[in-house]
Amino acid sequence: MTRIQIIKENHRVSQISVLGHAGYADAGEDIVCAAISVLTISILNGLTELVGRQDLNEKIQEGAVTFFIPETANDSISKETQLLLDTYILGIKGVEEAYGNYIKIEEVEN
Q1: What CATH number labels 2-109?
Q2: 29, 15, 24: which is closest to 95 by C-alpha?
Q3: What are the pLDDT digits (tens) for 16-69?
């Protein structure tokens, strides 16, 4: 099962961790794992390449991705960041809704 933890501080996403393999099918055929991977790499690419965030301190390993989203004083970057994060969360919740036995999302408010 893939576990995704979304940590929020003051209603703002500050960290996302994606851990484990879905186990829906064999490696190379696991559509759940592929969907989660595509969404996760897309959010990282969007934040770094489109928004210009170079402060995510991402850690990428086999079966695990964690990244931090520090607060920024730049209002435009903050809004763009939040829009992309909201889109990511919608996407992974859609995967969870369809394949809930293989993905678990936990949202934590600090």
Answers
A1: 3.30.70.1490
A2: 24
A3: 999 999 999 998 899 999 999 999 999 999 999 999 999 999 999 999 999 999
pLDDT at 94: 98
pTM of the model: 0.92
Domain boundaries, the chain: 2-109
Rounded distance between C-alpha atoms, residue 97 and residue 35, angstroms: 13
Within 1-110, strands assigned E span 2-9, 12-19, 59-61, 64-68, 103-109
Q: Is 61 exposed, middle or buried (0-12, 13-18, 19+ CB in 10 A)?
A: exposed
